[in-house]
Amino acid sequence: QVHLVESGGGLVQAGDSLRLSCAASGLTFSRYAMGWFRQAPGKEREFVAAINRSGGTTKYADSVKGRFTISRDNAKNTVYLQMNSLRPEDTAVYYCAADGPYPMLVVVTTLEDYDYWGQGTQVTVSS
Hints:
mainly beta; seven-stranded mixed beta sheet; four-stranded antiparallel beta sheet; about 0% helix
Protein backbone atom coordinates (compact mmCIF):
# COMPACT_ATOMS: atom_id res chain seq x y z
CA GLN A 1 0.00 0.00 0.00
CA VAL A 2 1.33 3.39 -1.00
CA HIS A 3 1.73 6.05 1.68
CA LEU A 4 2.82 9.65 1.23
CA VAL A 5 3.39 11.63 4.41
CA GLU A 6 4.04 15.37 4.29
CA SER A 7 5.73 17.32 7.06
CA GLY A 8 7.33 20.71 7.65
CA GLY A 9 4.35 23.01 7.45
CA GLY A 10 3.69 25.73 9.97
CA LEU A 11 2.96 29.38 10.70
CA VAL A 12 5.51 31.86 9.41
CA GLN A 13 5.74 35.54 8.57
CA ALA A 14 5.89 37.00 5.10
CA GLY A 15 9.41 36.74 3.73
CA ASP A 16 10.28 33.66 5.76
CA SER A 17 11.20 30.23 4.43
CA LEU A 18 9.90 26.72 5.00
CA ARG A 19 10.99 23.33 3.74
CA LEU A 20 8.33 20.71 3.20
CA SER A 21 9.16 17.03 3.05
CA CYS A 22 7.16 14.11 1.70
CA ALA A 23 8.22 10.61 2.68
CA ALA A 24 6.99 7.83 0.40
CA SER A 25 6.57 4.13 1.10
CA GLY A 26 4.99 1.17 -0.62
CA LEU A 27 6.29 2.07 -4.08
CA THR A 28 9.51 2.02 -6.06
CA PHE A 29 10.07 5.70 -5.48
CA SER A 30 12.71 6.22 -8.14
CA ARG A 31 10.24 5.17 -10.84
CA TYR A 32 7.62 7.77 -9.92
CA ALA A 33 7.15 11.35 -11.00
CA MET A 34 6.37 13.53 -7.99
CA GLY A 35 4.51 16.77 -7.53
CA TRP A 36 3.40 19.34 -5.01
CA PHE A 37 -0.03 20.90 -5.08
CA ARG A 38 -1.82 23.29 -2.75
CA GLN A 39 -5.36 24.19 -1.82
CA ALA A 40 -6.38 27.42 -0.18
CA PRO A 41 -9.74 27.81 1.61
CA GLY A 42 -12.56 28.13 -0.88
CA LYS A 43 -10.30 27.44 -3.85
CA GLU A 44 -9.54 24.45 -6.02
CA ARG A 45 -6.38 22.45 -5.59
CA GLU A 46 -3.66 23.86 -7.83
CA PHE A 47 -0.31 22.78 -9.22
CA VAL A 48 2.80 24.13 -7.49
CA ALA A 49 5.82 22.13 -8.66
CA ALA A 50 6.77 18.80 -10.20
CA ILE A 51 9.90 16.74 -10.72
CA ASN A 52 10.73 13.75 -12.89
CA ARG A 53 11.83 10.47 -11.44
CA SER A 54 15.54 11.19 -11.73
CA GLY A 55 15.29 14.73 -10.37
CA GLY A 56 16.81 16.14 -13.51
CA THR A 57 13.81 18.11 -14.74
CA THR A 58 11.43 20.32 -12.79
CA LYS A 59 8.46 22.55 -13.55
CA TYR A 60 6.80 25.28 -11.51
CA ALA A 61 3.65 27.30 -11.42
CA ASP A 62 4.29 30.89 -12.46
CA SER A 63 3.20 32.09 -9.03
CA VAL A 64 6.08 30.30 -7.28
CA LYS A 65 8.80 30.35 -9.93
CA GLY A 66 12.02 31.76 -8.54
CA ARG A 67 10.87 31.34 -4.93
CA PHE A 68 10.17 27.60 -4.57
CA THR A 69 12.45 24.68 -5.39
CA ILE A 70 11.41 21.06 -5.69
CA SER A 71 13.99 18.32 -5.21
CA ARG A 72 14.12 14.65 -4.39
CA ASP A 73 16.39 12.12 -2.73
CA ASN A 74 15.68 8.72 -4.21
CA ALA A 75 17.88 7.02 -1.63
CA LYS A 76 15.60 8.39 1.11
CA ASN A 77 12.31 8.01 -0.82
CA THR A 78 11.64 11.67 -0.13
CA VAL A 79 10.64 14.72 -2.15
CA TYR A 80 11.14 18.24 -0.84
CA LEU A 81 9.72 21.68 -1.48
CA GLN A 82 11.94 24.55 -0.39
CA MET A 83 9.80 27.68 -0.11
CA ASN A 84 11.52 31.04 0.17
CA SER A 85 10.18 34.59 0.27
CA LEU A 86 6.80 33.33 1.41
CA ARG A 87 3.77 35.53 0.86
CA PRO A 88 0.34 35.54 2.52
CA GLU A 89 -1.14 34.25 -0.74
CA ASP A 90 0.97 31.09 -0.33
CA THR A 91 -1.23 30.12 2.62
CA ALA A 92 -2.78 26.73 1.85
CA VAL A 93 -2.71 23.05 2.60
CA TYR A 94 0.18 21.57 0.63
CA TYR A 95 -0.09 18.07 -0.78
CA CYS A 96 2.50 15.84 -2.37
CA ALA A 97 1.51 13.37 -5.05
CA ALA A 98 3.04 10.46 -6.95
CA ASP A 99 2.38 9.27 -10.50
CA GLY A 100 3.80 6.23 -12.21
CA PRO A 101 5.65 4.02 -12.50
CA TYR A 102 7.34 5.47 -15.55
CA PRO A 103 10.16 4.00 -17.63
CA MET A 104 10.85 7.45 -19.08
CA LEU A 105 11.70 10.77 -17.49
CA VAL A 106 8.44 12.68 -17.48
CA VAL A 107 7.29 15.63 -15.44
CA VAL A 108 3.61 15.55 -14.56
CA THR A 109 1.80 18.80 -13.87
CA THR A 110 -1.85 17.79 -14.19
CA LEU A 111 -3.67 17.05 -10.95
CA GLU A 112 -5.88 14.38 -12.51
CA ASP A 113 -2.87 12.34 -13.67
CA TYR A 114 -1.60 11.67 -10.18
CA ASP A 115 -2.35 8.29 -8.63
CA TYR A 116 -1.41 8.77 -4.99
CA TRP A 117 -1.78 11.66 -2.57
CA GLY A 118 -0.63 12.55 0.91
CA GLN A 119 -2.83 13.93 3.63
CA GLY A 120 -1.45 17.44 3.35
CA THR A 121 0.38 19.87 5.60
CA GLN A 122 -0.82 23.37 6.50
CA VAL A 123 1.27 26.38 5.59
CA THR A 124 0.13 29.72 6.95
CA VAL A 125 1.93 32.94 6.07
CA SER A 126 1.05 36.03 8.07
CA SER A 127 1.55 39.55 6.75
